[in-house]
Amino acid sequence: MKNETEGGVIILKLASSVSDGIPFKLITSYKDTKGQEFVDSQTINFLDILEKNDENDHFQDLMARKGILLIRYVSFVHQILDKETVDEESKTKIRQFKEYFLKEMKEIGDESLDREIVMLDKFLKAFSQKNFFSNF
User: Fold this and answer.
1) How much of the chain exceeds pLDDT 70, in percent?
2) pTM (2 decimals)?
3) Cα(61)–Cα(57) distance, rounded to whole angstroms?
4) Which domain of life is it from (predicted)?
5) pLDDT tens digits for 2-41?
6) HSE (CB half, 13 Å, CA atoms) of 68?
7) Per-residue DSSP letters for 65-129?
8) Is the pLDDT of residue 107 over 80?
9) DSSP states of 8-51 as a string?
10) Cβ atoms of residues 66 and 48 within 8 Å
11) Is residue 15 included in any domain, yes or no?
Protein backbone atom coordinates (compact mmCIF):
# COMPACT_ATOMS: atom_id res chain seq x y z
CA MET A 1 0.00 0.00 0.00
CA LYS A 2 2.89 2.35 -0.61
CA ASN A 3 1.74 5.88 -1.50
CA GLU A 4 -1.91 4.88 -1.29
CA THR A 5 -4.54 6.72 0.66
CA GLU A 6 -7.22 4.79 2.46
CA GLY A 7 -10.23 6.74 3.63
CA GLY A 8 -12.02 6.57 6.89
CA VAL A 9 -15.58 7.08 7.98
CA ILE A 10 -16.79 8.40 11.30
CA ILE A 11 -20.43 7.76 12.05
CA LEU A 12 -22.11 9.64 14.86
CA LYS A 13 -25.41 8.89 16.48
CA LEU A 14 -26.92 12.26 17.29
CA ALA A 15 -29.80 13.35 19.47
CA SER A 16 -33.04 13.84 17.57
CA SER A 17 -33.00 17.58 18.26
CA VAL A 18 -29.91 17.88 16.04
CA SER A 19 -31.84 16.64 13.03
CA ASP A 20 -34.62 19.16 13.74
CA GLY A 21 -32.62 21.93 12.10
CA ILE A 22 -30.73 23.24 15.09
CA PRO A 23 -27.18 24.00 13.95
CA PHE A 24 -24.34 22.47 15.95
CA LYS A 25 -20.58 22.71 15.94
CA LEU A 26 -18.58 19.54 15.28
CA ILE A 27 -14.91 19.59 16.26
CA THR A 28 -12.69 16.69 15.29
CA SER A 29 -9.06 16.10 16.11
CA TYR A 30 -6.70 13.28 15.26
CA LYS A 31 -3.07 12.32 14.76
CA ASP A 32 -1.80 10.84 11.53
CA THR A 33 0.62 7.92 11.37
CA LYS A 34 3.55 10.35 11.66
CA GLY A 35 2.19 11.84 14.89
CA GLN A 36 1.14 15.14 13.33
CA GLU A 37 -2.03 16.55 14.93
CA PHE A 38 -4.96 17.91 12.96
CA VAL A 39 -8.08 19.75 14.13
CA ASP A 40 -11.16 20.61 12.10
CA SER A 41 -14.25 22.52 13.13
CA GLN A 42 -17.51 22.86 11.19
CA THR A 43 -20.96 24.18 11.95
CA ILE A 44 -23.55 21.76 10.62
CA ASN A 45 -27.25 22.17 9.99
CA PHE A 46 -28.97 19.04 8.70
CA LEU A 47 -31.72 21.00 6.99
CA ASP A 48 -29.10 22.72 4.81
CA ILE A 49 -27.52 19.37 3.97
CA LEU A 50 -30.87 17.85 2.98
CA GLU A 51 -31.62 20.77 0.67
CA LYS A 52 -28.33 20.36 -1.23
CA ASN A 53 -28.29 18.27 -4.38
CA ASP A 54 -24.62 17.59 -4.97
CA GLU A 55 -23.20 15.21 -7.60
CA ASN A 56 -21.02 13.68 -4.88
CA ASP A 57 -24.07 12.66 -2.83
CA HIS A 58 -24.12 9.16 -4.32
CA PHE A 59 -20.48 8.55 -3.39
CA GLN A 60 -21.00 9.91 0.11
CA ASP A 61 -24.12 7.79 0.50
CA LEU A 62 -22.14 4.67 -0.44
CA MET A 63 -19.40 5.51 2.05
CA ALA A 64 -21.98 6.03 4.80
CA ARG A 65 -23.71 2.81 3.79
CA LYS A 66 -20.41 0.93 4.00
CA GLY A 67 -19.69 2.43 7.41
CA ILE A 68 -23.10 1.43 8.71
CA LEU A 69 -22.71 -2.07 7.26
CA LEU A 70 -19.38 -2.52 9.04
CA ILE A 71 -20.83 -1.25 12.32
CA ARG A 72 -23.66 -3.77 12.00
CA TYR A 73 -21.11 -6.50 11.19
CA VAL A 74 -19.05 -5.77 14.31
CA SER A 75 -22.17 -5.65 16.46
CA PHE A 76 -23.38 -8.95 15.01
CA VAL A 77 -20.03 -10.65 15.59
CA HIS A 78 -20.04 -9.45 19.21
CA GLN A 79 -23.52 -10.93 19.68
CA ILE A 80 -22.36 -14.27 18.26
CA LEU A 81 -19.22 -14.37 20.39
CA ASP A 82 -21.17 -13.47 23.54
CA LYS A 83 -23.42 -16.51 23.18
CA GLU A 84 -22.48 -19.33 25.50
CA THR A 85 -24.06 -22.00 23.34
CA VAL A 86 -24.41 -22.23 19.60
CA ASP A 87 -27.58 -23.76 18.30
CA GLU A 88 -29.34 -24.05 14.96
CA GLU A 89 -30.96 -20.66 15.53
CA SER A 90 -27.50 -19.07 15.77
CA LYS A 91 -26.41 -20.72 12.54
CA THR A 92 -29.58 -19.52 10.83
CA LYS A 93 -28.95 -15.97 12.04
CA ILE A 94 -25.39 -16.10 10.68
CA ARG A 95 -26.65 -17.30 7.28
CA GLN A 96 -29.30 -14.55 7.22
CA PHE A 97 -26.77 -11.90 8.16
CA LYS A 98 -24.39 -13.19 5.49
CA GLU A 99 -27.14 -12.87 2.86
CA TYR A 100 -27.84 -9.30 4.01
CA PHE A 101 -24.12 -8.49 4.00
CA LEU A 102 -23.65 -9.89 0.47
CA LYS A 103 -26.61 -7.85 -0.81
CA GLU A 104 -25.24 -4.65 0.72
CA MET A 105 -21.71 -5.45 -0.51
CA LYS A 106 -23.05 -5.75 -4.06
CA GLU A 107 -24.98 -2.47 -3.75
CA ILE A 108 -21.92 -0.67 -2.40
CA GLY A 109 -19.66 -2.24 -5.03
CA ASP A 110 -16.72 -2.82 -2.71
CA GLU A 111 -15.06 -6.21 -3.05
CA SER A 112 -12.76 -5.50 -0.09
CA LEU A 113 -15.73 -6.41 2.13
CA ASP A 114 -15.13 -10.02 1.14
CA ARG A 115 -12.90 -10.39 4.21
CA GLU A 116 -15.94 -10.17 6.44
CA ILE A 117 -17.75 -12.80 4.36
CA VAL A 118 -14.78 -15.14 4.81
CA MET A 119 -15.03 -14.62 8.58
CA LEU A 120 -18.77 -15.36 8.60
CA ASP A 121 -18.03 -18.58 6.70
CA LYS A 122 -15.45 -19.46 9.36
CA PHE A 123 -18.07 -18.91 12.05
CA LEU A 124 -20.47 -21.24 10.28
CA LYS A 125 -17.79 -23.90 9.88
CA ALA A 126 -16.61 -23.52 13.47
CA PHE A 127 -20.13 -23.72 14.88
CA SER A 128 -20.54 -27.05 13.14
CA GLN A 129 -17.62 -28.44 15.14
CA LYS A 130 -17.19 -28.91 18.88
CA ASN A 131 -14.10 -26.78 19.48
CA PHE A 132 -15.25 -23.40 18.17
CA PHE A 133 -12.16 -21.25 18.83
CA SER A 134 -9.64 -23.72 17.36
CA ASN A 135 -10.75 -22.54 13.90
CA PHE A 136 -9.42 -19.01 14.37
Assistant:
1) 69
2) 0.62
3) 6
4) Eukaryota
5) 555 566 667 776 666 655 667 778 888 888 889 999 999 9
6) 11
7) HHHHHHHHHHHHHHHHHH-SS--HHHHHHHHHHHHHHHHHHHHHT-GGGHHHHHHHHHHHHHHTS
8) yes
9) --------GGGGGT--EEEEEEEE-TT--EEEEEEEE-HHHHHH
10) no
11) no
Whether 27 maps to a domain, the answer reads: no
| Cβ-Cβ contacts under 8 Å for 103 (sequence gap 6 or more) | none
Beta bridge partners of 41: 27
**Cβ proximity of 58 and 82 under 8 Å:** no
Domain count, the chain: 1
Q: What is the CA radius of gyration of the chain?
A: 19
Domain span holding position 101: 55-135
